[in-house]
Specification:
binds 6-O-phosphono-beta-D-fructofuranose, elongated, 10-stranded mixed β-sheet, glycolysis, ATP binding, binds adenosine-5'-triphosphate, binds magnesium ion, Rossmann fold, 16% strand, allosteric enzyme
Length: 463
């Protein structure tokens, strides 16, 4: 029990504020504990010092300090998370585990790897045999047409090579009581939920309902977001793969622009509320003249605007490349009353095509201000191509570690938590915290300044 005695204890260190991690024993007494089956696993060496992680193993949220500031006051508020990894004692008898895995929201490279590793990890690390895939997102828990599929290592062995999610995903269809009723009815006692910010908010509701019903069911969330818009974790799996794939679109736009008279290559990249993909693709490409993201509003006409800047670039270089995140400039595009209300199944506002709008605005501007002169705008919208690919090597490893971390935490009885990388190490973070944390691009930091150095674009601050 040493592991648990420490779980809410802030006296481990006077400067650490260890985040409370929900545990099944918070509301269920006298749960049986078991020796971790890894103890008898021929491939592991649990007797080695440091193999098992205890509650006193923590990861600090903030790692940068200015030592010139005497006794930094912020140390008093230093947040820490429990470190992920196998615990000496578990709260599940593997032969009694019935695990469910579900994928929700949009696609992201690596979803299949996470599913695969949950199956392989549960099976090979802990000896769990009852593992089920819930098809078609949250609605798949309770709708009759979606049959839950039993998953086993042989079935999933090459899933990490596939883009998408073999389980299928969907938006909307979140019906809390039907979902928890179905979980209870099916006898699931471990539920692994893979999805983005909306999915994590749904997972919090499920967890809270499970606690309200006092069920011996552990709920785990694994953040998936190609937009990288989930906070606290370093980044989401699949993000790097998406950025890498986006490079191909930018390269093509550059080639097209260079090969035309007054050529503009325009690339629209995913990013609903955050411009991380556009930003990272811009930084790695170095061919981009202007990067537009939702966090930094822009304007077209007048001094310091887009048209003035692009006019100068065309004069100087004969071509220009513009990258725009899909959520950028939405406030500039005229919308009909119906378009203002349009939402997807999950309630997310539907965006208008900023790339198509920009292309037409560029043409109008050019014809108006440069009559008779050629302008070529090549618009590339790779949309789903950047997220419907298999994960690259780095993301695949990330998916494995995040899945195995999730399993260790669940087997140790934790619930209502997320496993994810914090400062390069895997941590357990309360689901509620992750569901609320956003991760916008910080346009005040060095990275955004670096984008502006690489592109030379204006800051779009009217002055
Ligand atoms: N606030 C919420 N409370 C409960 N469930 C939610 C909430 N927001 C979204 N959901 C449910 O979560 C699932 C996925 O949500 P959504 O379609 O917004 O994708 P996401 O998880 O945010 O992923 P992404 O945006 O990366 O595609 C849907 O089934 C949706 O109904
Ligand atoms: O067209 P769909 O599948 O609803 O998803 C589009 C959205 O999903 C995301 O890829 C996030 O998963 C956003 O970048 C994009 O706005
Ligand atoms: Mg979302």
């Amino acid at each position: 029990m040493a592991d648990l005695d420490l779980k809410n204890n802030n006296t481990i260190s006077p400067v650490v504020n260890l985040q409370t991690l929900p545990h099944l024993t918070d509301y269920l007494q006298n749960l049986q504990t078991f020796t971790n089956p890894l103890h008898n696993n021929q491939f592991y060496h649990p007797s080695d010092h440091g193999f098992y992680i205890s509650s006193s193993d923590v990861i600090l949220r903030q790692i940068l300090y200015n030592l010139a500031v005497p006794a930094p006051p912020q140390l008093d508020q230093q947040l820490a998370y429990h470190r992920a990894g196998p615990r000496q004692q578990t709260y599940f008898d593997p032969s009694c585990v019935k695990a469910a895995i579900v994928t929700c929201g949009g696609l992201c490279p690596g979803m299949n790897t996470v599913i695969r590793e949950l199956v392989v990890g549960l099976s090979e690390l802990y000896g769990v045999t009852q593992i089920f895939g819930v098809p078609a997102g949250y609605r798949g828990f309770y709708t009759d047409e979606h049959v839950h599929v039993q998953l086993y290592p042989k079935l999933v062995h090459n899933w990490h090579k596939k883009g998408g999610t073999v389980l299928a995903t969907s938006r909307g269809g979140f019906n809390l009581h039907k979902i928890v009723d179905a979980i209870q009815h099916q006898g699931y006692n471990q539920v692994y939920i893979i999805g983005g910010d909306g999915t994590m908010r749904g997972a919090v509701d499920i967890y809270q309902e499970v606690v309200r019903r006092k069920l011996n069911i552990s709920i785990n969330g694994i953040p998936k977001t190609v937009d990288n818009d989930v906070g606290i974790i370093d980044k989401s799996f699949g993000f790097q793969t998406a950025v890498e794939t986006a490079q191909q679109a930018i390269n093509a736009a550059h080639v097209e622009a260079e090969s035309a008279v007054n050529g503009i290559g325009l690339v629209k990249l995913m990013g609903r509320n955050t411009g991380h993909i556009a930003l990272h693709a811009t930084l790695s490409s170095r061919d981009v003249d202007c990067c537009l993201i939702p966090e930094n509003s822009f304007y077209l006409e007048g001094e310091g605007g887009m048209f003035e800047f692009l006019g100068e670039r065309l004069k100087k270089n004969g071509h220009a490349v513009v990258v725009v995140a899909e959520g950028a400039g939405q406030e500039l595009i005229p919308r009909s009353a119906a378009q203002k209300e349009e939402r997807d199944e999950s309630g997310n506002l539907s965006f208008l095509d900023v790339g198509g709008w920009l292309k037409s605005e560029l043409k109008h501007w050019w014809d108006r201000d440069h009559p008779g002169e050629l302008l070529t705008v090549k618009y590339i919208d790779p949309t789903y191509m950047i997220r419907a690919v298999p994960a690259n090597a780095t993301d695949n490893l990330y998916c494995t570690l995040v899945a195995h971390s999730a399993i260790h935490g669940v087997m140790a009885g934790y619930t209502g938590f997320v496993s994810g990388p914090v400062n390069g190490n895997y941590a357990y973070i309360p689901l509620e915290e992750v569901a609320q944390a956003k991760n916008p691009v910080n346009t005040k930091d060095h990275k955004w300044a670096w984008v502006r150095t690489v592109t030379n674009q204006p800051d779009f601050v009217k002055g």
